[in-house]
């Protein structure tokens, strides 16, 4: 069963279209990245999925149907604009928010203790939230998101304010959740985190879907326009199929003409007696694809 | 419903268990008790307990009846010491054994002449006590009830022309207590509204809102918040009322004539009927304000605009109490923000016509329902706007 099915949703605020006919699906047991520049419509899309906003048109199915109050207990949400009751005591606040997610009082207390130990916050449990560091507060918010073992986790910028050690811990945690079959939707600007974690992604720009699919599939689809070559002999100028040849310390970067494939370029190199040490089709990073797509589509102001 | 209860409990305990709340609740009765106690103490300490000398040449005080005939509580009463010899009285005065001495002339019955010798003016109450001593003894052959009636004077009952209700001029408690309770009532409503305002704005400022509304419906959240803060206000009100009743019982031996009990009962009925819609009205307006404002300080400043009409009847309290059926009093009873204080005030001293109570409550309920509608709209439209104010136009016309 598809965990989230978003079909042609649109939402306008006054004259501005925040989300424009967006469609995508998210499957169980996958980490799905929702990407886009600032103001692209990601948060609006998430709020529509969570039934905080109503879409002007289109439909959303979450965990097998429309969002209901009962389903709220089956999802964990970490919004971008987040915080906790600053004057509240850490453990009491977590227990309260866990009970709002359907856990009984004793279960909530037990789980809070477990999670506090896991996130190395147990010694701070009697402190007020405002007495905790930003990173500790971030971990406390992650506890709120995960404490009730949700089937669907939606997290917006999960790694902000975390140091490298805690970032690694959260990554491990998200992989662990995915391996348990939990569906994770992750919004982030940190592309290398997406490359490490995500199975599939959707890129939204100016409210519209501009990229959608498996991570590797997308990267491969943007590859083939550049090759990296190490050669024992000089590459001759005027090489057929090469639009631009750049040389640096690590070798040659050859930009292909639109009609040329890496295979035909390799043939041309061999035919011209170039002694190759390494020939590699360059696969662009997600960062490069993001910039390329967003720049081509136009960046919202 | 379970989540509504959880929100209610959270809202209630987060206020009631704070030092600020405990201080706010206890400080008012403690301050009042302390003021009254200090007042009594200063009276007791400043009262000269020495007797007052009396030399009677008229024979009015031969075998005198002592005044006062009953103990009048913690404040010491005047005692009189009788002398036959003016020199002995002068010596006692010189020695500081008496405060002064009266000399009642032999022709007192015809002239009323009495002279007083004292180093400084005697207290007004003491002069009254001496006059009462003479009155009692002039009539000592009459029955004691007659003497006491003469001293106490008439007990005047005031009837209004159109009213079956009557108020005893000496039953101050019956009038005062409902007024005090009414003031406490609106203070409690206002304070509860303030707590709600603070709770809503803080949730917005803390960015907790988005987490909470993906756990519980906005209706349950609103209802839980309003009920929780209503209970905070009720707790405060009940503690203050208990303290007021204890205070009245302690200091005034709580008069218990049937009239005042009946009046307090009908008054409490009106108070109970107005409390819920009045609270919901104020709470929803505060929640609207909290949801539309961007920060707590701004919201607190604007909330003063709501407090103004709520307390406005106090500015006109004399006019309302003197003319409880005037156009001003009726107008204030029908306007939803002034009704919560005006209706109980009028009920404390007269019978408010049933149609006015009905109409006032109906308007109050309609206003409360309207403000809840406005609050839930503001909640939906304004709660997820961080650092951006929701305008009145957006609130009334916008969609979420």
Can you describe what's shown?
The complex is a heterodimer of chains A (301) and B (400). Chain A is of the alpha/beta class. Chain A has 2 domains: 1-63 and 151-223 and 284-301, Rossmann fold, CATH 3.40.50.300; 225-282, Alpha-Beta Plaits (2-Layer Sandwich). Chain A contains 9 helices and 13 strands. Chain A has helices at 42-49, 90-100, 105-118, 134-146, 164-179, 191-197, 215-221, 262-271, 286-297, and strands at residues 4-13, 16-26, 31-35, 57-62, 75-78, 152-156, 183-187, 200-205, 208-214, 226-231, 242-248, 251-256, 276-281. In chain A, strands 5-6-7-3-8-9 form a 6-stranded mixed sheet, with helices on both faces. A 4-stranded antiparallel sheet of chain A has the order 11-12-10-13, covered by helices on one side. The longest helix of chain A is centred in the middle third of the chain and has 16 residues, at 164-179. The two termini of chain A are 38 Å apart. The model of chain A has no long low-confidence stretch (mean pLDDT 89). With 400 residues, chain B is mainly alpha-helical. Chain B folds into 2 domains: 50-153, D-Maltodextrin-Binding Protein, domain 2, CATH 3.40.190; 167-397, no CATH class. Chain B is 67% helix and 6% strand. Chain B has 16 helices and 6 strands. The longest helix of chain B is centred in the middle third of the chain and has 35 residues, at 218-252. Chain B is elongated. Chain B starts with a helix and ends with a helix. Residues 254-259 of chain B have low confidence and may be disordered.
């Amino acid at each position: 069963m598809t965990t989230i099915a978003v079909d042609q949703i649109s939402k306008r605020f006054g004259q501005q279209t925040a989300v424009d006919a967006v469609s995508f699906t998210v499957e169980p047991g996958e980490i799905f990245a929702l990407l886009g520049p600032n103001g692209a419509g990601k948060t609006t899309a998430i709020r529509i999925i969570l039934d905080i906003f109503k879409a002007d048109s289109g439909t959303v199915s979450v965990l097998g149907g429309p969002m209901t109050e009962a389903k709220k207990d089956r999802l964990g949400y970490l919004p971008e604009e987040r915080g906790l009751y600053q004057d509240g005591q850490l453990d009491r606040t977590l227990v309260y928010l866990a009970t709002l997610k359907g856990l009984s009082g004793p279960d909530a207390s037990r789980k809070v203790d477990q999670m506090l130990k896991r996130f190395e916050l147990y010694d701070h449990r009697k402190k007020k939230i405002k007495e905790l560091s930003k990173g500790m507060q971030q971990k406390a918010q992650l506890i709120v998101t995960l404490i009730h073992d949700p089937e669907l986790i939606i997290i917006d910028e999960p790694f902000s304010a975390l140091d490298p050690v805690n970032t690694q811990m959260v990554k491990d945690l998200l992989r662990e959740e995915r391996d348990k079959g939990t569906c994770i939707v992750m919004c982030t600007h940190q592309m290398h985190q997406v490359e490490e974690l995500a199975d599939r992604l959707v890129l939204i720009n100016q409210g519209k879907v501009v990229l959608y699919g498996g991570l590797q599939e997308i990267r491969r689809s943007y590859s083939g326009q550049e090759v990296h070559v190490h050669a024992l002999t000089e590459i001759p100028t005027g090489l057929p199929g090469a639009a631009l040849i750049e040389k640096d310390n690590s070798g040659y970067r050859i930009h292909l003409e639109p009609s040329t494939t890496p295979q035909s370029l390799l043939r041309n190199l061999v035919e011209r007696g170039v002694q190759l040490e390494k020939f590699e089709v360059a696969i662009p990073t997600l960062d490069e694809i993001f910039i390329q797509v967003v720049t081509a589509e136009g960046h919202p102001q | 419903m379970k989540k509504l209860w959880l929100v209610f409990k959270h809202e209630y305990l987060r206020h009631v268990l704070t030092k600020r709340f405990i201080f706010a609740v206890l400080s008012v009765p403690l301050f009042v008790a302390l003021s009254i106690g200090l007042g009594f103490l200063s009276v007791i300490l400043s009262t000269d307990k020495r007797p007052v000398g009396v030399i009677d040449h008229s024979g009015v005080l031969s075998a005198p009846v002592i005044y006062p005939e009953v103990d009048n509580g913690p404040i010491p009463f005047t005692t009189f010491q009788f002398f036959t010899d003016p020199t002995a009285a002068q010596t006692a005065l010189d020695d500081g054994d008496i405060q002064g001495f009266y000399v009642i002339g032999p022709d007192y019955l015809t002239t009323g002449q009495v002279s007083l010798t004292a180093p400084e003016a005697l207290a007004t109450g003491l002069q009254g006590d001496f006059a009462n001593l003479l009155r009692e003894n002039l009539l000592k052959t009459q029955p004691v009830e007659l003497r006491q009636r003469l001293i106490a004077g008439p007990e005047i009952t005031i009837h209004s022309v159109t009213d079956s209700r009557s108020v005893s001029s000496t039953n101050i408690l019956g009038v005062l207590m409902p007024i005090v309770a009414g003031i406490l009532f609106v203070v409690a409503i206002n304070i509860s509204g303030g707590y709600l305002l603070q709770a809503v704005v803080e949730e917005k400022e803390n960015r907790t809102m988005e987490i909470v509304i993906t756990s519980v419906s906005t209706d349950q959240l609103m209802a839980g918040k309003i009920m929780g803060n209503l209970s905070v206000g009720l707790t405060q009100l009940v503690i203050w009322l208990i303290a007021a009743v204890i205070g009245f019982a302690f200091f005034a031996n709580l008069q218990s004539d049937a009239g005042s009990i009946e009046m307090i009962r009908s008054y409490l009925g009106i108070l109970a009927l107005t409390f819920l819609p009045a609270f919901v009205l104020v709470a929803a307006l505060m929640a609207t304000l909290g949801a539309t404002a961007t920060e707590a300080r701004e919201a607190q400043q604007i909330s003063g605009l709501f407090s103004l009409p709520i307390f406005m009847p106090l500015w006109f309290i004399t006019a309302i109490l003197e003319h409880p059926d005037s156009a001003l009093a009726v107008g204030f009873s029908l306007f939803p923000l002034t009704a919560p204080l005006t209706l109980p005030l009028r009920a404390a001293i007269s019978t408010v016509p049933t149609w006015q109570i009905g109409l006032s409550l109906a308007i109050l309920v309609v206003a409360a329902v309207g403000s809840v509608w406005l609050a839930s709209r503001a909640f939906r439209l304004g709660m997820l706007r961080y650092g951006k104010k929701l305008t009145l136009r957006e609130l009334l016309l916008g969609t979420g």
